[in-house]
Design brief:
This protein has 10 helices and 11 strands. Helix content is about 40%, strand content about 25%. The chain is globular and about 55 Å long. It is of the alpha+beta class. The strands form 2 sheets. Strands 1, 2, 3, 4, 5, 6 and 11 form a 7-stranded mixed sheet that branches. The protein has a 4-stranded antiparallel sheet with strand order 8-9-7-10, sandwiched between helices. The structure holds L-homoserine. The site of L-homoserine has 12 residues, from helix 5.
């Protein structure tokens, strides 16, 4: 029976002003998912390497996403999934999205690709629902489609692929603490002031325009979050200092990656992105917070069949 392995990359959701709306796919960090067709209908998670996560398919993000696909496909098919975790759960760079998206791409491939990448988003979102209680699409969309994406609506699903300026590079610093997305969503206020909504909308529109025009200065001016960052930044050690030093080192902007605790910075060019990484590391060295860092160009393809 047939087998496929896929590389499912990490991603940064929100990107400052686009809470639950914007996301971008990273290049060199991710999960590797092996999918094997079997004669036993359903999904079986046979092994998870690198993290302690549930093997029961109904409790595992990859299992849930795969089951959602099979329920829609409607014929008795069975797959075994093995997951090599390259992304730490609760790190803020789309750990659950990578596993869910990787699983559905692998299964779809073995079924002969009955679904487009856009259609697979709906199934991968079910993995997000089991991970954090909300089927948000801002991580799974860039992982499946590549580049920057904008979720105009999660239900009914309407996702737009944006332009990815070639010179943009993402720096990530991950303080070694875990913040569960469900907890980071629970701290958010559910009411906004009109002024906040206006400022956020203006920045989101300008950021999307900056991406299309490859106008790095407009991108710089637009990477501002008036709504979520002021609340969530309290969960992240040294956040304000990280942001100040990264921007001083040349970043176009710095913010919380997804629901944190990772912090991302966007820079024009690899040299600046590396300087930004060093500046952020220095902050954590000074306050003795253990961390790991990733520096990544934008991945325009998303999940890759190996
Ligand atoms: N948009 C989601 C949030 C992303 O910020 O809660 C979670 O990775």
């Amino acid at each position: 029976m047939s087998h496929v392995s896929v590389f499912a990359p990490a991603s940064v959701a929100n990107i400052s002003c686009g809470f639950d709306v914007l996301g971008v796919c990273l290049d060199n960090v991710g999960d590797t998912i092996h999918v094997q067709e079997t004669s036993k209908p359903g999904i079986e998670i046979t092994k998870i390497i690198g993290q302690d996560l549930p093997l029961e398919a109904a409790k595992n993000v990859a299992g849930v996403a795969g089951l959602a696909l099979l329920a829609d496909y409607g014929r008795d098919k069975g797959f075994q999934i093995q997951i090599e975790k390259g992304i730490k759960p609760g790190s803020g760079i789309g750990s659950s999205s990578a596993s869910a998206a990787g699983a559905v791409v692998g299964i779809n491939h073995l079924l002969g690709n009955p679904y487009t990448r856009e259609q697979l988003i709906t199934f991968a979102m079910e993995g997000e629902r089991v991970a954090c209680g909300t089927a948000h699409a801002d991580n799974v969309s860039p992982v499946l489609l590549g580049g920057f994406t904008l979720v105009r609506s999660a239900n009914p699903l309407d996702v737009v692929t944006l332009n990815s300026p070639l010179e943009l590079v993402v720096t990530i610093i991950h303080p070694e603490i875990e913040v569960k997305t469900a907890d980071a969503r629970a701290v958010l206020l559910d009411k906004l002031h009109l002024k906040q909504a206006i400022a956020q909308t203006a920045n989101l529109g300008a950021l999307v325009t900056g991406l299309f025009k490859e106008d790095y200065e407009l991108i710089r001016r637009s990477l501002v979050d008036h709504i979520v960052e002021p609340v969530r930044s309290m969960l992240i050690p040294g956040f304000n200092e990280l942001k100040i030093r990264a921007n001083e080192a040349g970043a176009l902007g710095t913010g919380i990656s997804g629901s944190g605790p990772s912090v991302f910075a966007l820079s024009k060019g690899m040299d600046i992105a590396q300087k930004v990484g060093l500046a952020m590391q220095k902050v954590y060295d000074e306050i003795r917070v253990p961390y790991d860092t990733h520096i990544s160009p934008i991945n325009s393809k998303g999940v890759k069949i190996l």
